[in-house]
Write a structure and sequence with these properties.
Length: 579
Amino acid sequence: MANEIEEIKSRLDLVELVGSYVTLKKAGANYKAVCPFHQEKTASLMVSPEKQIWKCFGCGRGGDHYKFVMEAEALEFGDALKLLAQKAGVTLQSRTRAEYQTRDRKERLYALNDFTARIWQEILVQAKAGEAALRYLKGRGLKAETIKQHRLGYAPASFDLKAQLLKRGFLTAEIARAGAPEKFFERIIFPMFDVLGNVAGFTGRTLTDKEPKYLNSPETPVFNKSRVLYGLHTAKAAIKERNFTVLVEGQMDVLMLHQAGITQAVASSGTAITETQLQILSKYTPNFLLAFDNDEAGIATTKKVIELLLSQELNSKVLQFGQYKDASELIAKDPKAWKTAATAAKEGVEWWLELEMISTGKLQFIENKKKVIRAMLPVLALVKDEARLDHYTQRLALALGVKIESIYAAVSRARPTASVSPATVSSQQLPLTNEEQLLALVLVRPKLLAQQFRAFKEIAWQSEAASSVAELIGKHYNNETLAKAPATFLSTQLKTQLDPTTAGKLDSWQLWLTSQWQELSDELAAELFAEKIGQLTTKNYELKKSALARQIKQAQEAGDISKVKSLMKGLNTLTREAR
């Protein structure tokens, strides 16, 4: 085995292998590329043609041919070995009787499944017994090429599959080990492929009222429902190229999307999406577009997958179908609508928040605000990244008109790993809000504020502590004094004018800043300051816009047309000023 491993490496040039997945550029004696295993803009993956190794200096991954293929294709070593052996034209030989038996048994099962799939496809496409199933599939919008490419078939009740398998030389024990495919009858057959394109199992859809509607192969030595994803063997290249996966509910959704050119779609095939499946997909991209059915079950699935993605620090967006019930119906009836819906897809937590707000209604009442917060806390408690949590909590606080500190405190209590009382959690352990981050920068670089003092004084502060600090700064200082102020001047002066609790927060804000950026250069401080004041200016606009929108809605409900016109005029003016 060791000799075969090295022979495969000697036959395959690593530069060519990696270059088949990413675009490589010459960099001295080596080649470089943007790493496909994490998000980055600057190329940090290096390939050495001399040493035949690769290394990413961004995420730390590296290794040889096998390690790259394992990462790129989400394969175990054995499968990566098989794939590279095929590319290199090397025939693998088992070294022990146990290895030989295991490999031979799996290959026999793959061969059995492949033969079964070919028989069922022939029946669907050519036999009278498959006519009704073929009409159904074409009626759903599938083309003959799609049916052929994905090897769809039909299992009639009158066909003796087991006899055909025995005649082909397969043993009764092998048929049983493959999951007894003869049990599928009067069903449209969707072959399930592993990532290498081998037929691992089957899903059968009934054309009658027979239950269950969908029937899957049982677990076998080559079929694991928690790992297999329908469509992945043909979708993986598109997923890597487009840098996002479309997750849908069933095989028909996948087929219709692939047929329409959305070839990065995959499905869990009638079973709940598992953490393992998401881990496999995350090898290709961290970004997921969720397009589950437009019903209660689909909404519940969407929520569950958002939670799983958050726990793995992966990104989600949710596509909404409007009048259509699922992806296949949308594509079949209005193909152009997909692009519009995908462009308008909402970020996962944002979608969830909006859903809770709509279902709760009348958010002017404190009880309803509490309901929304309680519904969102388990979700926010899963967020590990501080910047992401900062964004979500600010969004929730803004939408409900509550103080952001109360959201943070509630999230802290909701975290399952919290081992101390929220009252004992120091402020520097919690992520700072954008307001607090801006004020922390002002405290250590007061000169920056002199250039944006007018915008600073117009910010609508949401935190009581931040508002108190900002009010003092705006009242007692001006551009000239701030431009000349030394680094510690502002902090020292403010502490003498604030209450002890608020004054204590100044130290924690600065401590957080220095813990994040141990060497805060003037250039970096200026960039951070511009970013934060830009975010708060935008937030200020959103607050005014939301307030006007609420007033317009109230005026409409009251039938006050003149007030609606006046408020709409104010909204238009605000929109123009923000441009």
